[in-house]
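As a warm-up, study this chain.
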Amino acid sequence: MYVLLRKIITIIFFINLTSFSVYSQDSEADGVSTNSNGQSENLKNSSKPSVKSAKKANTKALFSPQIEWDQPEIKPTNKPKVHEVTLFGVTEKNIQVRVGRQILWVKTNEKNQKKIRKIPVKKLKIENKPIVDMKSDGSFTIKLRLPEGEVQVPVGLISGKQGARYQLVMYVKDKKIELKNQPKIYTECRYCIWLGAGFAYLAYQQDPPQDIKNVEYGAFGFPALSLRVRVKLLKDWNLRFAYHRLTGPELSSGDVTITDKSISWQHMGLEVDYRAISSFRLLGIKFDPALLVGVQNQDLPFLIQTSTNVFTIDSFKFNTASLGGMFFLNSHKIWYYEIFMRLQMAMSSSGDIKLSSGFAFDGSLGAIYRLGENIRLGMFWGGQYHTYKYEINAAPGAYSLLNSKIDLSLGYEF
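Now compare it with the structure written out below.
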């Protein structure tokens, strides 16, 4: 009798031990369950381990990769209250994303009673489109046809023999989807600062009404320095400050004497960006647009006459009002891009040089790489073109400037 009882206990213990090693590649990762917030839990370490296994658990970290979600897209279908849904997520590199065999559809009646229905994922597949589309950088999309109401989608993350499962809870409405208790993709900083250095080409023409022929200057200069700061004010409002300075080879002339030959140009701007339009996707690219309104202060090189056949490089200082727009492209990915465009209108000037009319264009392109949680590395191109009419001592003149620069910048976001 004792031997028979011992065998029964051994069999029960063996069944309980092996029940934790069951693995379903479609709906559940090895030894992992989910909690109420959809975060992963490791079942192998949730039971009470022995002293020996506890030591091993301390030396081996749990497999719990991070996953973040962007705002989903929703499109109508031919069936009422059924929509094509595209979920956008990002996880770590070299991790496979799977969707479980069935979803849970929670229906609530007029008496606020809930009824749960299980729907096979195969019935929700969009024709000629994969359910999961993975990219090498860890970003992925999940495409399904989902009914309106509360929907729970099991998502598995797999790396080799390790796995974790997340329960993605969402509310599908007529034209909107709400994700419940899910970490969102962090694409915007509250405070950002960028420092950059590079080289630039500067060309300017000046038609002065004084005793010298027209100035035509063009040369490459180094270094071209830049400082950019961004502060989040409100939900859709941000404040931006930028400072740029570049120097070029000295200006020389065989006809007259130039006492101060150094060429430099600096400008700074203060503006706000307003997210008047929500982000959207076009041809698989995510666009985050914003409207730019601000002011800029320009300090351009200007040749003036101090005495007979003696000239010097002075500053041509004035302010402009700027209006433009910007785009962030794929701001949720490791590599993302930015585009800025502005129109500047001259407002006022200081000193003996008086602006009568003029305008300017400026723009920039940037490619940015996320080095870590807070550090960014970017390569930027920027250019400006100015054309103005001015007066000096009641005599008219014309001025134009063209600039193109490339710099490598290091950014910190917090």
